[in-house]
Design a protein that fits this description.
alpha/beta; Rossmann fold; 6-stranded mixed beta sheet; 3-stranded antiparallel beta sheet; 3 helices; 9 strands; globular; binds inosinic acid; binds magnesium ion
């Protein structure tokens, strides 16, 4: 285990088993729509999750990316989101699935989803690997959730602290003395 990690919350095996389950649920939902699923991966945190998830779908899919940044700190994220990289393709009339690493207060995803809705997709759903329901301040209800986790700061499998730890294959709790909000 990495020296900065206090404990492992989700092992590689637990994550991969869940990814397989989610991929089956998502494939079932979109199979037979007559058009490819339009997946939107939110950079950078969701890329590891999305790469595993999308490879397990057994339906046609397109993949596009969006990079956003929230103003403010984690405990007081303003919910105002700046788009650093917009989508390459329009989503009007598409069945859109937004893939994100984690929903916390919900402010970032709420803002993002409102914006995407205005582009008139045929449908708009959300898949998150992690959900911290205790910290929610804005109503966001992901249709597909990997794991509900307690209010602890986690890193690994795409999730970072100061851009570190994304490449850990598991999800762990960062040692509290290393973490400043
Ligand atoms: P929200 O607007 O409060 O829902 O913020 C969500 C964003 O905060 C996520 O996209 C992550 O970038 C970040 N975040 C929230 N909790 C954690 C965590 O435990 N580890 C790493 N990043 C987190
Ligand atoms: Mg993020």
């Amino acid at each position: 285990m990495h020296q900065d990690i206090a404990k492992i919350l989700l092992t590689e095996e637990m994550i991969q088993a869940k990814v397989k389950e989610l991929a089956a649920q998502i494939s079932d939902k979109y199979r037979g729509t007559g058009r490819p699923l339009h997946a939107i991966v939110i950079l950078k945190g969701a890329t590891f999750f999305a790469a595993d998830l999308l490879r397990r779908l057994d339906i046609p899919a397109r993949v596009d990316f969006m990079a956003i940044s929230s103003y403010g700190t984690r405990s007081s994220s303003s919910g105002v989101v700046r788009i650093l990289k917009d989508l390459d393709h329009p989503i009007e009339g598409q069945d859109v699935l937004v893939i994100e690493d984690i929903v916390d207060s919900g402010r970032t995803l709420n803002y993002l989803l409102q914006g995407l809705k205005q582009r008139n997709p045929a449908s708009l759903s959300l898949c998150v690997l992690l959900d911290k329901p205790d910290r929610r301040v804005v109503d966001v209800h992901p249709e597909f959730v990997g794991f509900e986790i307690p209010d602890e700061f986690v890193v690994g499998y795409g999730l970072d602290y100061a851009e570190l730890y994304r490449n850990l294959p598991y999800i762990g709790v960062l040692k509290p003395e290393l973490y400043k909000d």
